[in-house]
Fold this sequence. Notes:
This protein is of the alpha/beta class. The chain has helices at 32-42, 56-72, 86-95, 104-108, 111-120, 153-163, 184-193, 207-215, 226-229, 235-244, and strands spanning 5-13, 16-21, 24-31, 47-51, 77-80, 99-102, 125-134, 137-142, 147-152, 167-172, 198-201, 221-224.
Amino acid sequence: MVSKRIIPCLDVKDGQVVKGINFEGLREVGDAVGMGVQYARDGADELVYLDISATQEGRRTFAALVERIALGIDIPFTVGGGIGSVEDAARLLDAGADKISVNSAAIKDPALIGRIAAKYGSQFVVVAIDAKCIDGRWTCTTHGGKRLTDVELFSWAWEAQERGAGEILFTSMDHDGTCAGYADAVYARLAEELSIPVIASGGAGSIEDIRRVLTEGRADAALAASIFHYGQIPIPTLKQALRASGINVRI
């Protein structure tokens, strides 16, 4: 049986990890490299780093940061934010990232997924989707949740898979940072409709929230930020509790 994964997410701006609620009100919470090293020591299975510095200078700085992260940790990590070409992906993979995540650029140019997968393999490509429920329809957004599109979540996730994505990382904007639980039913439907792993993001507030999204939600991995960044639930405590409830996690 494949182990369920626990993945801290670190949003990075100017080398610092930041966190907000519903994608708003960002505040600094720590050093990107130092926090990653500690999470690796604590037993995280993977890490996700998302660059929210939009400038070209910010992207160059982020590549240098990825090199430092790769030197400091010994677990896989995914990087995303501003990747709009095969060359962008190459720069970050060459810097030491294990996988790259594409979001806004893939919605604008879906063929980007296939171009990156053709060069590096689907296992290197994570398609991140930020969506919110509007009048009963899960609608995808771009540009860090700032722009609504007419793209529907489930059809886009399926298309991303068919174009070569190796994983889907879906964040419910309605749940993000609220610590009120994940959108379990949405993850269950994604798991039913897709054949690639689904990473759940947005809303973790308790061990029970994570247990539920990994069981009822059928997610392959649970990604969280606030509960780890603010020390609410240590990763070893979480994993022991999940193992005790019958979930296969690596300890």
